[in-house]
Amino acid sequence: MDDLDFSGKPAASAPKPVAKPSPPAEPASLYEPRLALEFFKIAGTLEQFPAGKQIFAENEKTGGLFSKGARIYLLLDGDVTLTIKGKPLELVLPGEIFGEMAAIADAPRSATATARKACRVLSIDEKAFLLSLQRMPEFALMLMSVMAQRLRRSIARLAEANKPAAALVQKNSLDRTMLSELRHELGDPQPTVAQAGQNVVTQGALGACMFVVTKGRIAISVDGKVIEYVEAGGVFGEMALVERAGRAATATAATESAWLLIARNDFLAMVKAKPAFGIALLRAMAGRVLHIGKLLREATA
Predict the structure, then answer these.
(1) Does residue 132 have a pLDDT over 50?
(2) Residue 114 is part of which domain span?
(3) Residue 225's Cα: distance from chain center in Å?
(4) Cα(272)–Cα(278) distance, rounded to whole angstroms?
(5) Among 68, 126, 154, 167, which residue carries the largest CB count within 10 Å?
């Protein structure tokens, strides 16, 4: 594997749809194939699949983070086709990761992965993921950038659909112990407080920090429509850690609320010290991607 070099490959955040390239105006992804390779090489397992071999199946239940043998894959060579109900969805190319959503979120596989050509992959389970994450916390930010790209695309399309949809309620992404540890790592700052109705961030504004709610409820809205509520233990604004684009949504205190701010360096230090913190945030973001994706499918059905 030392001879592998993805430096000449385009830095694609996620496998691109075969017939639907991303719009030119979309912010460039922060995905780095070489960083992914270094991450997977720390504790990954080399696997080979002949052409036509199914790697995992649509609706296969993983039961949560890496349980029941769920794995995340990095394609080294060959290519893998992702299909939904037998219809082509995406083509995974060398240097790209796949299978990460179901492994991180408590959700079934959203597609079937099949080796179109004979291929080699590096795969990681929960133990390997935690070990690698502690040594390379930058990978968590990179993976969040993948999800951020998907989330931005889905939010934009949902706004265009102009149909009512139920808001997601996010809470306890971080439990009390994690919140306490986080506050300690940040130097025990006093949470920032906002009264009901006060805007925390505005859609389109630039930001460099994410928010961890410690009290109350925050409403997340796009073009004036609430798509999510974030309660104590929940997070929002995390895309600012991985992108330099404007905020994708407006956050407003629905009740008297309080939160902690986390900058990029704070995030990296916390993930290195407590890999479970990074996993909790990845799981929260994965849940949001899946939820918005579901709303979009319902709105465009």
Answers:
(1) yes
(2) 33-136
(3) 22
(4) 9
(5) 154
The whole-angstrom separation of Cα 241 and Cα 269 is 13
Residues 248 and 227: their CA atoms lie apart, in Å, by 12
Residues 266 and 173 in one domain: yes
Q: Is 8 among the domain residues?
A: no
pLDDT at 170 over 80: no
Q: Is 221 left (phi over 0), alpha (psi -120 to 50) or beta?
A: beta
At which of 84, 107, 136 does a domain end? Answer: 136
Q: Looking at residue 110, which CATH number applies to its domain?
A: 2.60.120.10
Residue 67, φ and ψ in degrees, nearest 5:
-75, 160
> From residue 36, how far is each of 75, 118, 121, 200, 293 by CA, in Å?
10, 21, 12, 34, 25
Site of tokens 């460099």: 208
The count of domains in the chain is 2
Neighbours of 143 (CB within 10 A): 26
Which phi and psi angles does 81 have, rounded to 5°?
-100, 135
Q: Is residue 27 part of a domain?
A: no
- pLDDT tens by residue, 191-230: 999 999 999 999 989 888 999 999 999 999 888 888 889 9
pLDDT on residue 110: 81
Number of CB atoms found within 10 A of residue 301's CB = 7
CA separation for the pair 45, 43 (Å, rounded): 7
Instruction: For residue 169, give both structure tokens.
Output: 């309620």
Of 111, 136, 161, which residue constitutes the final position of a domain? 136
Taken as a whole, the chain contains a residue count of 301
C-alpha–C-alpha distance, residues 216 and 196, integer Å: 9
Residues 6+ apart with CB under 8 A from 242: 30, 141, 142, 144, 145, 148
In a domain, 28, yes or no: no
Specify the pLDDT at position 292. Answer: 77
Quick one: DSSP state of residue 241? G
